[in-house]
């Protein structure tokens, strides 16, 4: 059973990585709608994906640039709450403070961890 679970996790990581890359491609190209669609799917379908914090950060940036700060705050808040060890957590907190919204506390029951990664 543990091998099967690990194999499933690896397959989900690969699927999520493919979706994330497509979403990030659209983000770089400036197609916010297409990017948001892909990245939303990543965050909903693959909550254990190792770059979920980056997907949430990118979603926050998309909505901030679209002048929808209340929606951006939701995704940035999820970084702070669910991925407190992420290298993006501090920047997410700062943006939330800048938006004038409450900064959520890390939730140890929901915390999913993350691998430290660098923004490209």
Topology of helices and strands:
Layout: H1 2-29, H2 32-45, H3 52-65, H4 69-82, H5 89-99
Helix pairs in contact: 1-2, 2-3, 3-4, 4-5
N-to-C CA distance: 36 Å
Backbone structural class: mainly alpha
Shape: flat
- The succession of helices and strands, N to C, reads HHHHH
Runs in which pLDDT lies below 50 for 5 or more consecutive residues are: 114-120
Tell me what the structure shows.
It is a single chain. With 120 residues, the chain is mainly α. It has five helices and no strands. α1 packs antiparallel against α2, α2 runs antiparallel to α3 and α4 runs antiparallel to α5.
Briefly, what is this?
With 120 residues, the protein is mainly α. 68% of the residues lie in helices and 0% in strands.
Structural features:
mainly alpha, 5 helices, disordered C terminus, 0% strand, 120 residues, single chain, flat
